[in-house]
Amino acid sequence: MAVVKDQVCGRELNTEDVDRPVRNVPGGAPEVDPAKGTRSFHDGKWYFFCSLACRTKFSSNPAQYLK
Ligand SMILES: [Zn+2]
Description:
The protein has one domain. Strand 5 (38-42) and strand 6 form a beta hairpin. The protein is 27% helix and 31% strand. The chain contains 3 helices and 6 strands, in the order E-E-H-E-E-E-E-H-H. By secondary structure, the protein is an alpha+beta fold.
């Protein structure tokens, strides 16, 4: 279990919650619950966010949130 910080809003997230599949689709990738958070790969590292809104903000201007 790892606790990480949402770089946009500062909320703490549990990476296990973000990655936990809510349902298994036959023949498909496990689905995760977007309400639990999401993540984005940037500059060689995974960043976790509480919501798609935070991820979108980060993706549009990562440098602003990485200082
Ligand atoms: Zn957030």
